[in-house]
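We emphasize that the prediction below concerns an isolated chain of 373 residues; any contacts that depend on oligomerization or on bound cofactors are therefore not represented. The input was used exactly as deposited, without trimming of termini.
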Amino acid sequence: MQVADHPKMKEQAAEKKALEKAKQYAKNQKEYRAMTIARTELAGAYNAGEFYSIKQAQKDGLMGKVKKYAISAGDGRVCKGCREVEGQEANQNEYFKTQWGDVLFPPFHTSCRCAVEYEEISEPEEVTPKTPEMTNIDTQQNDSYSTSDEADNFIDRIIGRISGKDKEFVESILKEFDKGLETMQNETVKKLLIEAKNDVKFVRWNEKGSKFKEKSNIILLGQDATASTIAHELFHKIDHTYGVSRSGILTSVIQEDYRNLQRTSKFYGISIENMLYLKYTHIFRKENKVTEPYRGISDILHGMSKGKIFLGYGHTKKDYWKKPFRVEKETWAQYGRMIYMQNEDVWIVTNSIFPNITEQVNVILKEFERGLK
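Result of the prediction step, given as a token string:
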């Protein structure tokens, strides 16, 4: 007999009891979800730390090549999917095949307790010590989208005095950019970049940082410009042409990913910067600065936090992030840079930190793909 049908229980009492049970269930679910997130994050941090520590040891000549094996917790709580993966062998940079997809290292799913066992299969390679080079990598990133930083007649003066060396500089970077395009696997992005490149002028200017000038339809290439800089600025051009950022399609996912980072760091009782350093130590060259390939991550964090989080790269001009859609514009352009770079680890870390943004960018690119056919 159901509780509500019991002859000694009045209808109001049944309703009250059901409401209390519902509240308790909601409370338990909230606590369970928090613990689930914590367990999964800790497992991910542990396994990522081990994976990248081995890569660093190999880079330093302390370890040889390794094979890896998936291992479970080995008790009665291990799920069917993890039991099937247990003992699976893979090369260091290969993925484990699981029912949840291809995974580089655990966790394979939420609350997963699996780990990895590594076996050294060769002697360490001899490493030749390198003499440290002086670089200007510590300076902030100045690649930016601009509509009114200088008057249009200033642009005309720049174009009017382009020297032979300036042309050589532009041509050399464009040649490097074209080489990268040849190996691009993402055909949609490749087509978008080529379309934008053919519809814009490139000019050298004697400043650090590069800019896309909307009104003049010009990309100013600074002293430190590289092939990936061109991809970044061309994505600003694509954004201007198709109105990606101003549509607001990226706004909510940027906010959601930032809220998730805030919640997780608060749970651990540490700052977002320290949490990222502990989880992704290999991307940092100092405790508070990432290496150059991960500059896009730093700039997006700088933007979504309105300048509060600075990991070595960002737009430090006063009130830069206060202007409408600046965060969305730079986020879109940084994703263009990272897709062009085709650096697997950069993409893995980016997807881990910004899962909602990555998913939305992929949706946008799918729409472009349909339109370009």
